[in-house]
Task: structure prediction
Amino acid sequence: MTNPDFSFTIQARDGKARTGVIAMPRGEIRTPAFMPVGTAGTVKGLTMEQVRQAGADIVLGNTYHLMLRPGAERVHRLGGLHAMMRWDYPILTDSGGFQVMSLASLRTLTEEGVTFQSHIDGSRHVLTPERSIEIQHLLDSNILMQLDECIRLPAPEAEVARAMRLSYRWAERSKAAFERLVKPGEGRALFGIVQGGTNPDLRRESAEALAALDLPGYAIGGLAVGEPQAEMLATIAATEPFLPAGKPRYLMGVGTPDDLVESVARGVDMFDCVMPTRAGRHGTAYTRFGKLNLRNTRFAEDSRPLDAASACPATRDYSRAYLHHLTKSDEMLGQILLSWNNIAYYEWLMAEARAAIRAGAYADFLAATKEGWARGEV
Result:
């Protein structure tokens, strides 16, 4: 039976890599997809028109930050995130679990949920699976994430197993809350989150248990939290066989361009990360020629653009010398232009990956991309 709220069609495969389309009432999401992060209802420094022009089909909002400020009920009264942000396309919201564990103070974790104090003003809050789903619904999210417990790695295996099994029980409660609250036809879907650290057996247990819940999509959580890239990639490879083949896989909070293209090769369909905008605010540009640090004096009289072949105005129309000047002067425009360049580069990289998979040439694309980074701009 066709689900009018969510469908995923795989259009081509090349090894483990695949390209396809997620269809939702708000629009189509071409996969592999990079989702720019709009933590507090904004992709830092950019208008949503710029984000769309860069190639994004979907953006991410953050439950923890938005529940604290301006508040989920207020966002709802003001028409939801789509209206506030002026973004008419799909929005995914994370559950808030990672931020509660990493940002909040005086946390108390129980089977019921987590009680914490806001990092902003010390106010007390309780986040349960049910409340997380309620908040995401109030925010007008299209893809809602279950509440999970994400722990820092490395950690004792017993602690990793405890958190993974708690996250599964919270997934069951999240699904029940979603089904109570969300009516068919609202254009929403719930994703589960696979946990288990870097332990293949725990990852398999988590993936198989969540697969039995028959959710529309599945995230691989709890990675990029301190482990080396090789361990992250090995964990993805060990988890992928136990995820439903016909449903999207979302690697949460990852990562560098190299992380993305390597993860696509292992069967991942969706990504998000603050790295492009954060790096842009600190003077770093991601390009086909690798990372460029615009604070470096070698760019002071470089009249070339970052990449003359780019369709992004920030990349194509401003000289490296000007970007160097803006960065060294700590001018806001420099942060905006480099953030725009970086989002556009990530979206271009995913578009190139999709084309390579359709052509059956993903291995060649991967090698050529890495060669371009290694060769540099000369």
The first strand starts at residue 7 and ends at 14. The two ends are 54 Å apart (CA to CA). The chain has two domains: 7-273, 280-368.
